[in-house]
């Protein structure tokens, strides 16, 4: 499950067709209702989940793929998009109110996943959200993906579970598991 630039370039080109306005609205409304003023999507791709945030938010996105970041910057010029890895997030400790992933953790190997979780915890000031394909006992989906149990991955961190449920199909048709954590 290493980084495959050709795969991710193609994924980025197809990403616009994956735009789910209901999910983007859900993320924006959730962060707003939690009284957050800054948001970071780790593995932001072309930025489709960040497009509905108002100008009052500090919007950040990080991704490894240059092509995806070019598209993101073109579509959402007010956001701060950076190239970087989940294993080494270029942000200060507790500097972002709401840190989230959407379909990223399924693509990571176990070592990168563990480093990424630690980094998300480090940079989060208030909340962390993962929205990922779920299986209680993690298992391979295909050569590029693995089902994840994000609740199980967060048990050693100083967090309170706010939610750990499947997304409603009206918001996210694949019904991934929605895990929301409050950093303590």
Major sheet: 7 strands, mixed
Just name the CATH architecture: 3-Layer(aba) Sandwich
Output the helix-strand order: HHEEHEEHEHEE
Average pLDDT, to the nearest integer?
Answer: 91
Low-confidence stretches: none
Measured as a percent range, the helix fraction is 25-40%
- CATH topology value: Rossmann fold
Query: What's the alpha carbon Rg, rounded to whole Å?
Result: 15 Å
Number of strands: 7
- Silhouette: globular
CATH C-level class: Alpha Beta
Q: What strand line-up does the widest sheet have?
A: 3-2-1-4-5-7-6
Multimeric state: single chain
Binned strand content: 25-35%
Q: How far do the termini sit from each other? A: 32 Å
Q: Mind telling me the CATH superfamily name?
A: Vaccinia Virus protein VP39
- Number of helical stretches of at least 4 residues: 5
Broad structural category: alpha/beta
Number of domains: 1
What can you tell me about this protein's structure?
The structure is a single chain. α1 (5-15) runs parallel beside α3. The chain has five helices and seven strands. It is 28% helix and 25% strand. The model has no long low-confidence stretch (mean pLDDT 91). The chain has a single domain (5-183), classed as Vaccinia Virus protein VP39 (Rossmann fold). It has 184 residues and is an alpha/beta fold.
